[in-house]
Amino acid sequence: MLSALQRLLPIAEKVIDRRTSLPILKEICIQDGIARVTDLETMLVMPVPEIRAYTISVTLLKKVLATRPQNLFVSVGEDQKITISYGDHKVTYSSRNTDEFPALPGEKFKPIGEWSRDIFQVLATQARYCSRDELKASLTGVFITQEKGQLAASATDGHVLRMQNGLDVGKAKPLSGIIPTKPLLLLAKLARGHTKIGLSNTHLSFSLPGDVTMYVRLIDEKYPEVESVVPKEFSGEVLLDRDKILALIKAAKPFVTCTTHMSIWNIDNGDGRITVDNLEEDTRWEAPLPISESSGEGIKIGFDLGLFERALASQQSPTVRWKYTAPGTASVFTEVGKEWDSGAVTLLMPIRITEEEVTHEQERGD
Q1: What pLDDT score was predicted for residue 113?
Q2: Which fold has domain 110-227?
């Protein structure tokens, strides 16, 4: 039992929600030879050499295992009193009713394929672009579609959209659903080699090392039609030096207006310039853009500087292709170079440049 709890605790700590108002969700449930931990969204299940039924607080177990005991024994008394004996020490506590612990998903799971560890790493990267607004439930997870041996994933908070295509999943069966971010980040740390995936009407299951199974409840919402916001034609494009632009953004950040983080990007005849006007403090910060190449028409477009930084930071290549259509349309960022081509596309929504900002820019220019 000691070995099983030592393996389970580090994972259990990452699954439980310490902010929950339901005390039983801060417990490990031992029942019928298995241990369960859940936050209602994710459930970890692991076989243990114990047929009795009781719960152990994750916090209590952590204190016990912190002493690095050589042995551990559990005694079950009356009135749900549990005693854990370890070394020369023992601690007694009241177990919670295991019948009140959330049950295992009752649906039948069908195998749908295997994902490599690299797949989980990519999906974890996608998770960074999801919304944290619980009122936008569909945007709080990564939307995945799997068909014909290829997996695609989309993530957005409504401002930055990152789409990942062309992930090879072999002979995997069709799948479509929204996976919450928390389990994706955990799976990226736990998965090894190839992980078997199962699908029910409401959950995915993942077979992990150490005979651990993770059940993840899919988000039951309709995902937006993201393909509809992707521009099909572009009026111009430029190649940007990723690191130099990120350095410019870092230098410009202290000068933005706190409410909008507004920045104006001006591309004209192969030259580029970024300006940051702070109307509250009546200041302007500006700098030339390091453009490698440009083609097509120029543009003057407004962006939230922090969002532009996030869109650019997702690119892995040293050179990034920025394609645009109009000041009111999403811009598209992709990686440049065959060795960097991951199939990822990042969209950034612009900010409308107001008449006040145009006037301020013209006055400053004069």
Answers
A1: 93
A2: DNA Polymerase III; Chain A, domain 2 (3.10.150)
